Amino acid sequence: MTTCGFAIAHGFAAAVVLSASTEVTGACGTPRVTMEATSSDVRAFFKNQGKVVLTFLGYSGAGYEDEAALLAHAAKVMEQYSPSTTIVNIGVTPDGIGRVYELARQRGFQTSGIVSTQARDSNASVSPCVDHAFYVKDASWGGLIEGTDRLSPTSAAMVDVSDHLVAIGGGEVARDELVAARRAGKSVTFIAADMNHRIAIEKAAKKGEAPPTDFRGAANKVFGNEAEVKP
Description:
The chain is α/β, with parallel strands linked by helices. The chain is 31% helix and 17% strand. It has a 7-stranded parallel β-sheet with strand order 1-5-4-3-2-6-7, with helices on both faces.
């Protein structure tokens, strides 16, 4: 990873500089910066980095049925970007799409994450492979604010700072962010992927619902016909 340190009003530490590698495992675990930030703070950080922001969206706790395919898709996308000029941005947590953090670090990318304060307040894990994690004060986990067509603060910040958004599968939050990004004229890509079948079936059972038969997620219902890769 190549990066230059930057500090905004709340005080950021300089990121640790790592050499790029496509084979090293255990490349994570270096010191990271986590902080609650306003949308203005987040915007200022990325602006001062002066890099392209490549954001990956997808399933988090719902997981992926084929994690190898997830990483292969992400790797193919990252091949189109230079680690010296690109920040890989996701949603802070290590689950699901968060698996891409480790791959990004192994390839020398600076990494960042934006997530709702709901994650911090519920003690959700932070990926050891994220360099800068931003908690945006939010009453929800993201997506549209209920009863409106406006994005929640977290999702609004995610879309605002991103230059390119790539969704590999994804539920309602990923769908809402991708739709908003397209409306804003951002570059968007959708790659179809199934959520983890076992997790989805167990979740339905806990709710007393019938087991699902479609595991492609809410984002697929909007972007499935234009997916670059289909199951």
